[in-house]
Write a structure and sequence with these properties.
Length: about 325
């Protein structure tokens, strides 16, 4: 690691430093996202509230790297971090947060299209709740329906297994264990929820630092669930803001779905062991760990059997 916390070999490319400290920084971690990335970037740059756009490139094709460098050379707000390799999503976000200078941080997936008014709605909601506050956007599918995973209940080993297996959808007596809330009525304003989606969320820099950012033991997935839990445990709030919207494509990574789900399974096992607050819960997390991993890697097959009846997402 370098003296400022960046991995050795990481390079920041920018045309000029801002004359004043930026207010809003958008952070995006990229890894072989494909065409969706270059559709997402203009949505960010079109938002006048964005003072700084930090892209952490964990890995792209040589052609995409060249395009990103060209954007950095012509766009003063665009800051590109490259050359550090695939360090994972959580670590990449932390690197982006250290690089960014804004007082307000918005973490955005590279396949999520920021919609008008999203950032102002996120920041406004953050002022209404105790710190540390995590504010999640309403995540939409391309058809305008609410995506699965944008607002969720408590993520536990039992609710995870029942949700992953779609038993909560197909057996009415198990629906009380369903953690996804996209079928519930849309609230009139921002409301506390246990968990929001990492596809697009806001934190003040002060709150992000108070939580020490993301836990870097998570390589891909579950880091958002973890930071929500830690914020609540510190007396803060996790908030769903229905007025802030993003369109999230999902499933754009060139990695095989089984690889992605493997990392999700590993992350869930780590999370359940971490938050176990007594020996019984720890033993339950350990006992269910192998089953969670099996169900995770089988999810692509389960989707083909049961279908995505409630939209894409986690």
């Amino acid at each position: 690691m370098s003296s400022d916390g960046r991995p050795i070999g990481a390079n920041i490319i920018l045309t000029q430093l801002p004359s004043e400290p930026p207010a809003v920084s958008v952070i995006m971690v990229v890894f072989h996202t494909g065409p969706a990335l270059f559709n997402a970037i203009p949505h960010v740059l079109a938002e006048p509230l964005v003072d700084e756009f930090v892209v952490v490139d964990n890995g792209s094709t040589s052609e995409d790297e060249d395009v990103l460098r060209a954007i950095a050379e012509r766009e003063p707000r665009f800051r590109l971090v490259q050359g550090h390799g695939n360090i994972g999503f959580a670590r990449g976000c932390n690197l982006g947060a250290r690089t960014a200078k804004g007082r307000h941080l918005v973490i955005l997936n590279p396949d999520a299209y920021l919609q008008a008014g999203c950032i102002s709605s996120l920041i406004e909601a953050g002022r209404q709740f105790p710190s540390p506050t995590v504010v999640g956007a309403r995540v939409l599918n391309t058809d305008g329906s609410e995506q699965r995973g944008g607002r969720r209940g408590e993520v536990t080993p039992v609710t995870t297994l029942l949700s992953f297996s779609h038993l909560t959808l197909n057996l009415p007596f198990l629906r009380k264990f369903e953690i996804h809330m996209e079928d519930q009525a849309l609230p009139d304003g921002p409301i506390p929820v246990p968990t929001i989606s990492g596809a697009c969320f806001y934190m003040s820099r002060e709150d992000f630092q108070s939580l020490s950012g993301f836990d870097e033991r998570y390589f891909l997935h579950v880091e958002d669930v973890d930071i929500c839990w830690r914020a609540r445990r510190m007396g803060g709030a996790v908030v769903f803001q229905p007025a802030a919207t993003v369109v999230h494509l999902g499933s754009t990574s060139l990695k095989h779905p089984v690889v992605v789900e493997y990392h999700k399974g590993r992350g869930l096992i780590c999370y359940f062991r971490k938050r176990a607050d007594n020996p019984w819960r720890y033993m339950l997390a350990v006992a269910l760990g192998p089953l969670i991993m099996v169900v995770s890697v089988l999810r692509p097959a389960l989707r083909s059997v049961f279908g995505q009846t409630r939209g894409k997402g986690k």
